[in-house]
Structure formats: C-alpha cells, structure tokens
Write a structure and sequence with these properties.
Blueprint: H1 2-5, H2 20-23, H3 26-33, H4 37-43, H5 47-68, H6 77-92, H7 95-111, H8 113-120, H9 122-139, H10 147-159, H11 163-167, H12 176-191
C-alpha cells in the first residue's frame, strides 16, 4: 500500500481517478490501487493526508539532494548559496512542484490539504535550512542572528520575481542566473559576518 502512495503524480497506478482530486474518494482510490479502504485508512487518516504524502514523496529525493548542497563546513559561502539557489529554483519551478503548489492553494483552505502539504514539504525543508543557518552563525560565517529569520529571508530573496509569476503562468521577472546572484549577494550583505 505504501508503494502506491509513493507513486509519481503522473504515474497511472498512483494517479487520482478521473474527475480529479476533489471527486476522488478513499474507496475509489483503494479500488484503483488494489487494496481495501480500511488498509488505506491505517496508513493515512484522510484523503488529504494520502494526497499530501504522495505529492511530497514524488519530490522528496530531489529535495534531499538540494539540502545536501548546504555544507556548513564549506567556506565559500557565496558559492554554496548560489548552487543551492539554482537547485532550489529548479525544484520549485518544476512542473510537479508548481502543480502541487497550485493544488494546495486551490484545495487547501477548505480541506486542510494546504496545511498538510506545507507541513510535509516546505516547512520541513526550511527547517533544514534553518539548521544550516544556525551552524553558520556558530561557525562565525554569519553575524549573530535568528537562524529562522535568516532562512526565511533567503527563501524570500530567492523566490522574488520567480514564484508568483510562475504560479500565474507568466514568465519569471529576471533571468535565473541574475536573480539568484542578486538574491545571494543581498542576503550576504545583510547576514555575512564582518
């Protein structure tokens, strides 16, 4: 059963029945993947939890590779953050990630799906970035600051001019290379030690 939930969003076996997410029931999903509804509920408390787990699992490997770029021992902080910025925006603007984000926004408030997706994905990922920021503060590479805010500021700078236009189906406001370099330089002006 766990295998079906880990399917890629576009996989035929793991996909939601015709009619889309909103019309799919746990009974329809369990019939589609060949298990019982009771078994499905033993793994996931709701359709929202199942959908969130499937969507996050589809992105998890890429996200882990992204977080592995954040090596607190690497002394070339600008190079680390630029590499991270490129990988982060590539993941964030992938067709799968944009589809997940749009679904979370469209379905999120009424069903709780948005909260579930946020907790399993972005919040967990940015918690790892916060841990990286804390290590940089302890090493003296960043000035004394709240790592939570530093991670949030980096996220905002990297996403500026990218995420909002792409969610609307519009092109990015700046070329990716320029936007990432400017975001990292701005972050380092605000947070770098010395």
């Amino acid at each position: 059963m766990r295998h079906a939930a880990r399917g890629h969003p576009g996989d035929r076996q793991g996909s939601v029945p015709r009619g889309g997410y909103e019309r799919a029931s746990m009974a329809m999903i369990s019939a589609r993947v060949g298990g019982s509804k009771a078994t499905l509920y033993s793994y996931f408390k709701s359709k929202e939890a199942l959908f969130a787990a499937a969507m996050i699992a589809a992105m998890e490997e890429q996200a882990q590779g992204l977080l592995n770029l954040l090596d607190p021992e690497d002394t070339d902080l600008r190079a680390v953050l630029v590499r991270f910025g490129h990988a982060y925006l590539a993941l964030l603007t992938s067709a799968d990630a944009l589809a997940i984000t749009r679904t979370a926004i469209a379905e999120g408030t009424a069903s709780g799906l948005g909260t579930e997706l946020y907790e399993l994905g972005p919040r967990r990922g940015w918690g790892a970035v916060e841990t990286y920021m804390r290590a940089l503060v302890e090493r003296g590479a960043l000035r004394p600051c709240d790592p939570h805010f530093a991670a949030g500021h980096l996220k905002g700078l990297l996403e500026a001019g990218v995420m909002e236009p792409m969610l609307f189906g519009a092109p990015m406001e700046f070329p990716a290379d320029t936007g990432i370099a400017e975001a990292v330089d701005c972050f380092l002006r605000a947070y770098a030690a010395g």
